[in-house]
Structures are given as structure tokens and as C-alpha cells.
UniProtKB/TrEMBL annotation:
Organism of origin: Aquabacterium olei
Residues annotated as domain Uracil-DNA glycosylase-like: 17-171
Name listed for the protein in its UniProt record: DNA-deoxyinosine glycosylase
Matching Gene3D superfamilies: Uracil-DNA glycosylase-like domain
NCBIfam families (alphabetical): hypoxanDNAglyco
Coiled coil (UniProt feature): none
Length: 185
């Protein structure tokens, strides 16, 4: 009897470094970067991901000022100036494609280490369900923890307006609606 062909294991992938600046007040935690984000080494790089349009809407940035209209390197200083930090719960994992449901053998990022490096953080918000599965870990860090609807295009059951309203409520509580005084990214 012939043996079954060997199926190659999913590749072991490494995530992105955190985006965090002085005065960070809210940490947004995704699960793990998708294929487009890993290829470009940019958070939320898929063109249909609502992350950058939501931030732009929250901060009143439109037209040429909208974050999604700017090069990635120009987005990050704006993020930092508003007191927002970005990272993922997973540092490494095996996964084919971009779906969270395909994540295997995941290794958590050093969230306590990031919290120590960012003493001004006031809250943590999980971007989607896979990230929120680790809510017990983030709650143990001693900050308020929120679950936000995923900005992924896979979360088509929520309209942009509904996602925006949920994100607005958390951003207002964490006071990341306006830029920090005197801080530069």
C-alpha cells in the first residue's frame, strides 16, 4: 500500500514589532498580521481592512490627510501622537493564509514587558475575537480591557458605521481622540 504524500507543515511566521511611543494610553492588540501585512511589514495592510479608515474617521482625518491615503511611515507618527500603541497577542505562529482560524502553535508576545515599557498605558483593547481569547492574560496586567469588533474584511457582519461606533466609545474612554500635547512620534 503506497504511503500518503507528506503534507508540508505550515510555515512558522514571526509577527511585527510593537508601535508604541511616549505617552501611549491605549494598546490595540490584534491577533497576528495577515499575509499582506507580513509581506509589507505594516500593520493592517490589507486594502479592505477598516483599521486605518476607522482611525481616520475617529480623528477627523479625511482626503489627503486620511491615514489610508498616506504612506505607512507617515501614519505611525500620527498614531503615536494620539497616544495609541499597536501590537498583536501572538509573536509567532504557523498559519496558511490570513484567517485567524488557521493559526496553529502560537506563541504569545511579551505583553507584561510592553506594559513595563509603556507606563502611561490606561487600557488595552482587543481587535477581534481571536485576540480577545487572551483576555485573561491582558486582564492580569491590571488595566481595563475592552473587546472591539474586528476591523478585518472577514468581519463582514458588522457595518463600517457599527464598527466605528464601538471603536469611538473605547477611544473616548481611553482619551485617544485628540493628539497629545507636545509629543511627536
Amino acid at each position: 500500500m503506497p504511503s500518503a504524500p507528506l503534507v508540508p507543515a505550515s510555515p512558522r511566521l514571526a509577527g511585527l514589532a510593537p508601535v508604541v511611543g511616549a505617552g501611549a494610553r491605549l494598546l490595540i492588540l490584534g491577533s497576528f498580521p495577515g499575509v499582506a501585512s507580513l509581506a509589507s511589514q505594516q500593520y493592517y495592510a490589507h486594502p479592505r481592512n477598516a483599521f486605518w479608515p476607522i482611525l481616520s474617521a475617529l480623528w477627523g482625518l479625511d482626503g489627503d490627510e486620511a491615514l489610508q491615503a498616506r504612506p505607512y511611515a507617515e501614519r505611525l507618527p500620527v498614531v503615536r501622537a494620539h497616544g495609541l500603541a499597536i501590537w498583536d497577542v501572538y509573536a509567532r505562529c504557523a498559519r496558511e493564509g490570513s484567517l485567524d482560524s488557521a493559526i496553529r502553535d502560537a506563541e504569545l508576545n511579551d505583553l507584561p514587558g510592553l506594559i513595563r515599557q509603556a507606563p502611561t498605558l490606561r487600557a488595552i483593547a482587543h481587535n477581534g475575537g481571536e485576540s480577545a481569547r487572551h483576555r485573561r492574560v491582558t486582564e492580569a496586567l491590571g488595566l481595563p480591557v475592552y473587546r472591539l469588533p474586528s476591523t478585518s474584511p472577514a468581519n463582514a457582519s458588522w457595518s463600517f458605521e457599527r464598527k466605528l461606533a464601538a471603536w469611538r466609545a473605547v477611544f473616548e474612554q481611553a482619551e485617544v481622540m485628540r493628539p497629545l500635547e507636545g509629543l511627536r512620534g
